[in-house]
Design a protein that fits this description.
Helix content: 10-25%
Distance between the termini: 24 Å
Bound molecules: 2-acetamido-2-deoxy-beta-D-glucopyranose
Largest sheet: 7 strands, mixed
Number of helices: 2
Amino acid sequence: MRTTSFAFGTLIALISCLTGVSCQLRKCWGPQNYCYSWGGTKAVCVDGYCYCSGQDYDYNTCLPDAYGCKIVMNSDAALAKPQYNQQYRTNYSCTPVSSSTQYEVHVLGVYEAEVIHRRPPVASDATVNIVSQRKSNRPIILVLGNYEPVNWILNIPAGITITKVILVAYYIDKSSVSGDVNQVKAIERKSYPAQWPRGIGSDSGGGDTVGLLKKVYNRFGVVTSFTGTYKANKWSLDVLSSPRGPSTGASTGPSTGQITPFTPVWPQSTPLKPVWSSQNTPSPTPVGSEVGPVSALC
Ligand SMILES: *[C@@H]1O[C@H](CO)[C@@H](O)[C@H](O)[C@H]1NC(C)=O
């Protein structure tokens, strides 16, 4: 009986995952209707489910919607594709139509590249295979963010130069960039959270994707792409040569520093009710760690 209803619930959850945002809704927790609220997400319980009232987050999905980047879950359209042991996992991405016209900025974010519960931690490898049809006409900026230490190995096609790699990591001294670094003009290293924010695209379990998007925005304009996942050891990144959309003046160079206000619009209609109720219940995380993806199924 238990197994049957679990299997049924799983099926329903899968279907609702495929059809909308419902799989991202989390049930409020316990008799107090608790919603785990990290950073600026400002999660609140409404009718038994958690929503996010933070201004830089989507009300329904709780995913960042800030600085020109509206993060969606499990998109096929993303320019970067993270994998863990040849498998796609829950991923968060944006590919804004109006991105910086001056720079091509790709942001990749993970929590870890392998399960490491060793202390002191040891870096794990993550390979980034850069693919490019043509030569970019703008400086390419690559921002790599991780919590557990990662050695990012870049495979860059001949003729492509990365103007700058910005590496943001909690264990910055144990994280590194290697591979075709002779095709990288400069590498900047930032420690998280003291110097730069980082995140995996969902801030519900920790991290600061919004803060990262802001940093990038202030320096380079709207990102060309953001892609994050909890765990990945292999990436492909499609480097484009021109901005995807019309340049409406929304993108800025490094010095203007102007910030377009992104006003969240609250949906008027009642959001889809999730039918699967056994989502993992969020609980407060110890300082310095993050909870995993909302659900292993989604
Ligand atoms: C994210 O995961 C989904 C489902 O596994 C997959 O179809 C999609 O291509 C992935 N997207 C990225 C950007 O990796």
